């Protein structure tokens, strides 16, 4: 019999105000390590294992200070320590934003190597170690240079030196790992282009497709402490010039659809009052922030209320920011298209909203499961959905063919789940109806 009566009821797609912990985003903890010949690989592993195990966040910014080796090659012992630290991160499932540097005290001019070639040799030495840990190293920040590794007050701040070092990182570091530099002007200078990254270039593995930003002066002033300028762009072909705050926010809004952006907020001022702060964090698509700097700003958020989002009515500003750093998926609606006589397959449509500040920059495995409520039999459908296209503060409609003519009659509960193939972690939805097995209810299908 060809005719197959079917009814479909969508699940209620309502967002919860709960915090959901997902990979690649959120507040991060900062920790630093100084390799030396007085230490050994086992003690380095133990140190890293302990701090990773006690980290309440998905992310950690790991700073490794190489100043003890600023006059030549890294020793095998130093390399072994770094390798074992990253092994501990892998073993504990800790995701790393990695920054190599030669200074923690604002004295980079005194501790940096005397020649760029020494830094380049360190990059080459460390690349094989870093590349062996793509399961935990998410982003590499900076070019090994500057005060606290922030690419300022350095012997190697010229356009030539900066471009050479970051280009070498692009050449040596695995394409699965994002790179990042301190300012939009530096990024444009290194790439020798003023036009922002486009959707057709994104995720291609090219240099522009993996080079993002980190801003440790975020919301610190109208200029974000030297990140922006007080005069507008003048020459469309001059990729080295800085723009105004408004121009650079617009630039970040465009490129950070495809590459990560994060850092730390600083200096209590009007730009980091909660309402303008949320607006700018959303425009910049910020996905990660330091959990301990600047405490004056973070405490101000904790003592404020964010009232612009009815889902989070009564929520303090800090909790609101934490819940929206990076991506925050909500399945909001679904429908089924099926003609009981003419259709060979049914088409399930579902809408995923991203209420977070930024997209996810990694593609996840997305699976639909239809469970017969009478027999418990499951129909599992792998999808080709690319979640990276769900922009921050936007939504996307996806569809999936279901071969329901081969299913037994009965009532099916349809759920959707996401998983990160790199870390193996479940991607949690912010729906009120997220199920106990970490999936989200899509709807109920009845086949008569």
From TrEMBL:
Q: Where is the DUF4832 domain?
A: 210-430
Q: Where is the DUF4874 domain?
A: 22-185
The identity of this protein, by name, is: DUF4832 domain-containing protein
What domain of life does the native source organism fall in?
Bacteria
Q: Which InterPro entries match?
A: DUF4832, DUF4874
Pfam families in the record, alphabetically? DUF4832 (PF16116), DUF4874 (PF16173)
């Amino acid at each position: 019999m060809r005719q197959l009566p079917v009814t479909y009821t969508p699940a209620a797609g309502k967002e919860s105000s709960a915090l959901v912990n997902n990979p690649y985003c959120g507040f991060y903890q900062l920790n630093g390590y100084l390799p030396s010949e007085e230490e050994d690989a086992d003690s380095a592993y133990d140190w890293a294992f302990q701090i990773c195990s006690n980290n309440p966040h998905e992310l950690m910014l790991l700073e490794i200070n190489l100043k003890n080796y600023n006059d030549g090659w890294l020793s095998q012992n130093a390399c072994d320590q770094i390798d074992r630290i990253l092994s501990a991160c892998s073993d504990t499932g800790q995701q790393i934003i990695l920054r190599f540097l030669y200074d923690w005290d604002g004295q980079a001019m005194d501790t940096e190597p005397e020649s760029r070639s020494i830094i380049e040799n360190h990059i080459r030495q460390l690349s094989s170690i870093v590349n062996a840990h793509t399961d935990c190293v998410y982003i590499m920040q900076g070019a090994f240079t500057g005060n606290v590794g922030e690419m300022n007050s350095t012997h190697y701040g010229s356009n030539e030196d900066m471009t050479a070092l970051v280009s070498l990182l692009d050449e040596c570091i695995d394409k699965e790992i994002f790179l990042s530099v301190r300012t939009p002007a530096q990024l444009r200078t290194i790439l020798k282009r003023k036009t922002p990254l486009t959707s057709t270039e994104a995720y291609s593995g090219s240099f522009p497709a993996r080079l993002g930003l980190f801003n440790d002066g975020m919301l610190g002033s109208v200029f974000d402490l030297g990140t922006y300028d007080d005069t507008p762009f003048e020459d469309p072909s001059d990729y080295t010039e800085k723009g105004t705050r408004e121009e650079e926010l617009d630039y970040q809004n465009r490129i950070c659809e495809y590459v990560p952006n994060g850092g730390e907020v600083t200096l209590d001022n009007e730009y980091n009052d909660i309402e303008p702060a949320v607006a700018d964090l959303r425009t910049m698509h910020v996905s990660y922030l330091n959990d301990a700097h600047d405490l004056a700003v973070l405490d101000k958020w904790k003592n404020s209320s964010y009232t612009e989002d009815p889902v989070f009515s009564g929520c303090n500003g800090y909790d609101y920011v934490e819940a929206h750093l990076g991506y925050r998926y909500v399945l909001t609606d679904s429908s089924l298209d099926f003609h009981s006589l003419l259709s060979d397959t049914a088409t399930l449509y579902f809408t995923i909203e991203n209420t977070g500040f930024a997209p996810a920059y990694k593609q996840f495995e997305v699976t639909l499961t239809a469970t017969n409520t009478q027999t418990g039999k499951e129909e599992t459908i792998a999808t080709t959905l690319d979640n990276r296209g769900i922009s921050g503060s936007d939504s996307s409609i996806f569809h999936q063919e279901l071969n329901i003519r081969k299913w037994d009659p009965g009532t099916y509960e349809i759920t959707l789940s996401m998983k990160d193939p790199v870390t193996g972690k479940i991607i949690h939805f912010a729906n009120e109806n997220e199920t106990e097995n970490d999936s989200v209810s899509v709807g109920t299908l009845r086949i008569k």
